[in-house]
Amino acid sequence: MYTFKGKEYPCCASLTMGMIGGKWKTVILFHLRNGKLRYNELRKEMPTVTERTLSLQLKTLEEDGIIKRTVYTSKPPLKVEYSLTDFGQTLMPVVTSIAEWGVYAVENHAD
Amino acid sequence: MYTFKGKEYPCCASLTMGMIGGKWKTVILFHLRNGKLRYNELRKEMPTVTERTLSLQLKTLEEDGIIKRTVYTSKPPLKVEYSLTDFGQTLMPVVTSIAEWGVYAVENHAD
DNA sequence: CCGTATCCTGGAGGATACTG
DNA sequence: CAGTATCCTCCAGGATACGG
After folding, report:
1. What is the pLDDT of residues A32-78, one digit of tens each?
2. Pairing mode, if any, of strands B2-4 and B7-9?
3. What PANTHER family does the annotation carry (chains A, B) (predicted)?
4. What percent of chain A has pLDDT over 90?
5. Is the CATH number 1.10.1040.10 carried by domain A23-109?
6. Nearest residue to C3 (CA, C1')?
7. Which residue(s) pair with A7 in the sheet?
8. Which of residues 47-106 of B touch A (CB under 8 A)?
9. Where are the domains of chain A?
10. Pairs across A and B, CB distance < 8 A
């Protein structure tokens, strides 16, 4: 049994999935792999996610210390950038591994 | 846009998550990393999953060609073993990466 | 530009009882 | 031993409209 951030997980694998699982978190992290992105830039990369869901997932990732949100202007139009924290960087090998297998599967096991 | 097994994914990362996402699939695959296990052996490793859910997840993994189910006896008590397919083996680097990060997080970022 | 507010739905997963 | 069969709950995520 593993405990992390006040939650219990029955396996080390489920702990990780608790942090990056769900439909969108790995996609967000994948798009942040090369540096910061603005909210609308993320939306552009992920055309099929709704605003509400993107917003919620970003907030969860921020609360978990995986990404950080930086606001550059105080008056509208706001400029906000999202980027990986140092802790979030430690997840990059996992995210990369996940992304690479997706490419591998499409290229070698297409139907 | 990526297409795999008749489903569409907006990102290579979401394709992989479509195959191994959810609460239990990575846990099952993690426990099968060293070889075959019987149904009740899996249950022993995963005491908090319900029978129905375990059964459903195993069936999904089998349908996706990731694990294979082998029946050794025709009369009760049945002997059934689950193991990775060759295709499932290609997921092991991903599963290992996920599992190792879980251990890393607990050891280095505990609260 | 960067979100939040509301309302809603589908399906993942749980509890429990039963079967070949 | 290895599951199914039912029934049920809960919440991630979607649709859409509006706000700082």
Report:
1. 999 999 999 999 999 999 999 999 999 999 999 999 999 999 888 89
2. antiparallel
3. TRANSCRIPTIONAL REGULATOR (PTHR33204:SF29), TRANSCRIPTIONAL REGULATOR, MARR FAMILY (PTHR33204)
4. 93
5. no
6. A55
7. A4
8. 47-48, 87, 90-91, 93-95, 97-106
9. 23-109
10. 141
CA gap B20, B28 in Å, rounded: 10
Q: Chain B partners of A13 at a C-beta cutoff of 8 Å?
A: 26-27, 29-30, 95, 98-99, 102
Q: Is the Cβ of A17 closer than 8 Å to some Cβ of chain B?
A: yes
- Quote the radius of gyration of chain B (alpha carbons, Å): 15
pTM equals 0.95
| pLDDT score recorded for residue B12 | 98
What pLDDT is attached to residue B10?
Answer: 96
Asked whether the beta carbons of A54 and A46 are under 8 A apart, the reply is: yes
Burial class of residue A83 (count of CB atoms within 10 Å of its CB; 0-12, 13-18, 19+): middle
Amino acid symbol at A21: G
